[in-house]
Design brief:
Radius of gyration: 17 Å
Oligomer: single chain
Number of domains: 1
CATH topology: Rossmann fold
Structural class: alpha/beta
Shape: globular
Bound molecules: S-adenosylmethionine
Distance between the termini: 38 Å
Largest sheet: 7 strands, mixed
Number of helices: 10
CATH architecture: 3-Layer(aba) Sandwich
Low-confidence stretches: none
Helix content: 40-55%
């Protein structure tokens, strides 16, 4: 039995919390208006994000990589009154689309605080501690993003990182060789795509071996890593 088959994936979606209609609409709009709709997290990951945020009793959530707002709204669903999701998006052409998405979402959208710009500039300027951070931006920067977010997290807080299995590239022989070479000679240039693989592998190795973090990997979709701040 192939536990990754489309049929099993469909079965899972039929036996978890249903996807709210407004998120189905957002998914359709994302397919109509963007070139890479695959980037959207979707039904299963979205419900998981909401679930995790509820489990830790999150009041303040940080996201790197808003895209069309799907995951930001899923996490906002978990928030009590007065809770906030601060989400950063570098691609400024998405701003009018996102403003409309959050306005259409009514009271839920009011819980989302959109920051357009590079998360590397925005996050250090945010005050206060966060309960949850969702890393879903530039894969080449996952280590830098984690180090940037770390001082902003409360003890016991949760960092969630997406795409950490990177389509399986993380265990491919050539990726392992690339990563070993990169560690020995970081000055040797790598291609843009290779830099993504190296970025993910460096992140995975860091969170598995650093006593600041308690880490589990969940093999949903492209891999989701949960990092508890010890
Ligand atoms: C995979 S998509 C995010 C998907 C979204 N979190 C969701 O689940 O629906 C990644 C997004 O990160 C944005 N991004 C990449 N680098 C960034 C950075 N340095 N700061 C802020 N956003 C960034 C990209 O423009 C893209 O929209």
């Amino acid at each position: 039995m192939n536990l990754w088959s489309d049929e099993i994936q469909q079965y899972i979606l039929e036996h978890i919390e249903r996807e709210p209609d407004f998120l189905k609409v957002l998914t359709r709009k994302t397919h109509l208006h963007t070139l890479k709709p695959r980037m959207l997290s979707g039904h299963l990951e979205g419900r998981l994000l909401k679930f995790f945020c509820q489990m830790v009793g999150a009041r303040r959530i940080l996201e790197i990589g808003t895209f069309t707002g799907y995951s930001a709204l899923c996490m906002a669903e978990a928030l009590p009154d007065g809770g906030q999701v601060h989400t950063c998006e570098i691609f400024d052409e998405l701003e009018p689309f996102l403003n409309q998405v959050f306005a259409d979402a009514g009271d839920l959208g009011k819980k989302v605080n959109l920051h357009i710009g590079d998360a590397a500039d925005i996050v250090p300027s945010l005050d206060g501690l966060f309960d949850v951070a969702y890393l879903d931006g530039n894969k080449r920067r996952y280590v830098e993003d984690l180090e940037m977010v770390y001082p902003k997290m409360r003890k016991g807080g949760l960092v969630i990182a997406d795409n950490t299995l990177w389509d399986g590239h993380v265990i491919e022989e050539e990726s392992v060789a690339l990563y070993e070479r990169y560690k020995l000679h970081p000055e040797v240039p790598v291609s843009s795509k290779e830099a993504q693989t190296v970025g993910i592998m460096a992140f995975n190795n860091l969170v598995a071996n650093d006593s600041r973090f308690q880490t589990v990997m969940v093999p949903v979709r492209d891999g989701m890593t949960l990092v508890r701040i010890v």
